Amino acid sequence: MTAHHPSTVSVEVLIVGAGPIGLETAAVLRGEGRDVLVVDAGSIGSTIERTFPPETRFFTSPERLAIRGWPVTSPTQEKATGEEYLAFLRAFATGAGLAVRTFSRVVGVSGQQGDFTVKIAALGGEEYFIHTQVLVLASGGMDTPRRLGVPGEDLPHVRSHLGDPHRYFGRTVAVVGGRNSAVEAALRLYRVGAHVHLIHREPELYTRVKPWIKPDMESLLAEGQIVGHLPAAIVQIGPGGVELRDLADDSGTQWISVDDVLLQIGFEQDSELFDLAGIELTGPQRAPHVDTATLRSNVPGIYVVGTAIAGTQSGFKVFIENSHQHADQVAAALAGRPAPNPVPARPLPES
Predict the structure, then answer these.
(1) d(CA 52, CA 104)
(2) β-strands 144-145, 241-246 pairing
(3) What's the confidence (pLDDT) of residue 60?
(4) How far apart are CA 331 and CA 196, in angstroms?
(5) For residue 282, which of 245, 321, 309 has the smallest C-alpha distance?
(6) Three-state SS at 174
(7) Is 316 or 44 the better-scoring residue by pLDDT?
(8) Which of 134, 143, 266, 296 is the most exposed place for a label (fewest CB within 10 A)?
(9) What is the DSSP string of 8-59?
């Protein structure tokens, strides 16, 4: 990859999003002889890079994360960590001979089927154009952290990404949420020497918290080693603490002194790319409208694959593990072949 891009690039298929399904779609289309370029506003696998704390393991097994027969391996033979999967994605992109441009954000889309012009803004500030016949959007669904919508949410001690837990040693931290990210963050903070409060709107933790961490959290809550506020909601965040409302009996509010607030309440999809492309968004999740057989959007020549098809998911049903067939659906549509038969779901979803 060169430091300077020409002002105009022409490719047959442009894929926006260098996550697992974007790369998989690129590999399948390249295997059918198509000229394919992948661009991403961040790095390869940027959602994993941005949202996974160090050494976090996937819920999904390696077999379901594998792409096109390329195995995901781990020295421990356990579920892969974020770092291991990013290494796998780099190896897959290289081994499959994929052309990928990272830190290249789409800032404009114009034209029509067979003749799209996509404007790209690179990290260094330069802008250029890509002409393409087909546009495939694989932009994912975890672009922006959800917000509580309470006063004080933008104070500097409020964060939405855990990062390295080491920074919280000796500090008192309010972790907000009751699903996998919140529970794992609370456990890791506790184990680096932070004093942890867990705040969740429901009376119990989410039932599908990873089974190898849920018992630990429940024991620590029962022992008071991690202070639980379930069910409770934050009314406001102030310097040095948070105001909580007990949702069990609505008995008023209490103030809890904390040094940091860590919001682990999920993510929302950024609709900017769909808006630029003129994609219709439907339902409360604002999911892009696609044909279920071909994954073609309401704009001829533009397809949507991966978790991007689901919009902002509240009850997560679309994952890497059940999106692998999307590459074959787009390939069939472009080649004029019948859509492939649906792949039967495995008995127990893991994600």
Answers:
(1) 22
(2) unpaired
(3) 87
(4) 49
(5) 309
(6) strand
(7) 44
(8) 266
(9) EEEEEEEEE--SHHHHHHHHHHHHTT--EEEE-SSSTTHHHHHHPPTTPBPS
Q: Is 80 exceeded by the pLDDT of residue 79?
A: yes
* Spatial CA neighbour of 220 closest among 161, 273, 175: 175
Whole-angstrom distance, CA of residue 170 vs CA of residue 181: 21
> Of 347 and 217, which is predicted with more confidence?
217
In the block, tokens 């409302």 appear at 245
Helical H segments across 76-161, by residue range: 82-95
- pTM assigned to the model: 0.84
Q: Could you give the CA distance from residue 197 to residue 175 in angstroms, rounded to a whole number? A: 6
Report residue 264 as tokens.
């682990």
Amino acid at 128: Y
Angle between helices 214-223 and 180-191 (to 10 degrees): 60
What integer best gives the mean pLDDT of the chain? Answer: 90
- Residue scoring higher pLDDT (223 or 212): 223
Query: In this predicted model, what pLDDT tens digit does every residue of 286-296 receive, in sequence order?
Result: 889 999 999 99
Cβ atoms within 10 Å of 55's Cβ, excluding its own: 11
Q: Pairing state of beta strands 127-137 and 115-122?
A: antiparallel
Q: Where do the domains of the chain lie, and which CATH numbers do they carry?
A: 8-144+267-335 (3.50.50.60), 147-263 (3.50.50.60)
Residue bearing tokens 């933790």: 205
Asked if pLDDT for residue 346 goes beyond 70, the answer is no
Q: Which of 266, 204, 261 is CA-nearest to residue 235?
A: 261
Partner residues linked to 11 by β-bridges: 132
Give residue 252's Cα distance to chain centre. Answer: 36
With a CB cutoff of 8 Å and minimum separation 6, the contacts of 38 are 14, 15, 16, 17, 18, 22, 23, 26, 98, 99, 100, 101
Task: Say yes or no to pLDDT of 351 above 60.
Answer: no
